[in-house]
Specification:
Blueprint: E1 11-14, H1 23-26, E2 31-36, H2 41-50, E3 54-61, E4 64-70, H3 71-78, H4 81-87, H5 92-98, E5 103-107, H6 113-122, E6 125-130, E7 133-138, H7 140-167, E8 176-183, E9 191-199, E10 202-210, H8 214-232, H9 238-256, E11 262-270, E12 275-281, E13 286-290, E14 293-297, E15 317-320, E16 325-329, H10 332-335, H11 345-355, H12 359-374, E17 383-390
Parallel strand pairs: 2-3, 5-6
Antiparallel strand pairs: 1-2, 3-4, 6-7, 8-17, 9-10, 10-11, 11-12, 12-15, 13-14, 13-16, 16-17
Helix pairs in contact: 7-8, 11-12
Length: about 400
């Protein structure tokens, strides 16, 4: 039952506000007109023409809702000669019976998400009430469009917080000179970069790619930021990094039940020896190169979070870097496609790396070439890379 005030008034118009949760999605419904079944259709039509902001008409029989009609349906039907002949100058309930559709009566304080499943099944219009009294109406299209805006804003905020966290994972280094690029496919992404000197002669460089996209991936990348900040505050060595990777693998398996995994490259760079230890956990290859010379170090270990791993089975590759440059990247760099559905690919990447004279040129030219190649096609994966060289 719905209470109706001022029964002697043939119609009432309700304007939306933002007082209650469901009304946050009902704001776009503008005005709602409530009429009794005995009100003539011509009178309703006249009121709609005078007030173009009325979007819905609720038809009542006593205190019961008979129908919810969008004003455009009333105007469209009654404006035809046939429609006016059949329904004109007759009670509005006759028109309501002709174009009646599903509706739900929802109390305004009800959480928005609780009605999504219902309206997705039957596309019902929603009659909003406040303490049993009619407030207004909204429809699924309005709800979905506003929800998309809410989700988009939430995603932007997630991305902003993630960028804030990751930006504090990039430290000034006295061991390596580096440049990086990180472009998420959504507002928040699954790529993670960490660079920090752990001693006067050593630097820890990490590039990770979390499976999935959006908020779920952003949660894990944020967790990675805290993880590496904590372990980098201690004195790191080969053994302690291996133990940390093993611990991270256990955490991912325990908390995410195999739904998430991480590919990762960890580089421990030594300025004095000009060498670096590379631990590649199922990630893209590491390039060590100069003009005319290209060495690849491909993955020797499985991604993090897929299976239990033993510390003794994690393989470390020791590489002499010298004056050469090092390039590490996420798969979004080589997997991005153009309008002909062709991938950028490793060969094109290698050609760019070998053609540039310094790391600044590599960063700027590679990014320009990737964006030019993709021809502004939709980016389906995060694009991240780091290029560095050991400071002499």
């Amino acid at each position: 039952m719905v209470e109706i005030n001022e029964r002697n008034v043939p119609y009432r118009v309700y304007e939306p506000n933002r007082q209650f949760p469901i009304n946050l999605l009902g704001v776009a419904a503008k005005k709602t007109m409530v009429v009794d079944t005995n009100v003539l259709t011509d009178d309703v039509l006249d009121l709609l023409l005078k007030d173009s902001e009325i979007m819905f008409v609720i038809v009542l029989a006593g205190d019961e809702i008979v129908s919810v009609i969008e004003s455009k349906d009333v105007l469209n039907l009654i404006s035809t000669r046939f429609g006016h002949h059949i329904y004109g100058n007759k009670p509005i309930v006759k028109l309501a019976n002709r174009i009646q559709k599903n509706f739900l009566v929802i109390e305004a304080s009800r959480p928005i998400r609780s009605i999504i499943q219902k309206i997705s099944k039957n596309r019902a219009r929603i009659v909003i009430t406040i303490n049993g009294q009619i407030y207004g109406v909204t429809n699924p299209d309005i709800i979905y469009s506003v929800l998309l805006r809410i989700i988009e804003e939430d995603s932007k905020e997630t991305g902003r917080l993630q960028n804030m966290i990751i930006s504090k994972s990039l430290y000034k280094s006295n061991v390596v000179d580096y440049r990086f690029v990180s472009i998420p496919s959504f507002n928040a992404g699954g790529d993670y970069i960490f660079i920090k000197d752990i001693s006067p002669s050593q630097s820890l460089i990490v590039l990770a790619d979390v499976s999935g996209k959006g908020t779920s991936a952003a949660i894990v990348t944020s967790m990675l930021s805290f993880f590496f900040k904590i372990i980098s505050d201690d004195k790191l060595s080969r053994d302690s990094i291996i133990k940390a990777i093993k611990k991270l693998n256990d955490i991912i398996i325990e908390y995410f039940d195999y739904e998430k995994y991480i590919t990762m490259i960890v580089c421990l760079v030594n300025k004095d020896t000009k060498k670096m230890d590379v631990i590649n956990m199922g990630h893209q290859p590491v390039y060590i190169f100069n003009k005319g010379e290209m060495l690849q170090k491909r993955a020797s270990n499985v991604p993090i979070g897929l299976v239990d791993i033993c510390e003794d089975n994690i393989i470390i590759d020791e590489v002499f870097v010298g004056s050469r440059r090092v390039f590490i990247f996420s798969d979004g760099v080589v997997d991005i496609k153009n309008s002909d559905d062709m991938e950028y690919g490793e060969k094109r990447l290698e050609a760019v790396l070998l053609s540039c004279d310094n790391i600044e040129d590599i960063k700027s030219y590679l990014l320009e070439d990737i964006l030019s190649f993709s021809e502004e096609q939709y980016q389906v994966d995060d694009i991240s890379f780091i290029v560095f060289e050991i400071i002499s």
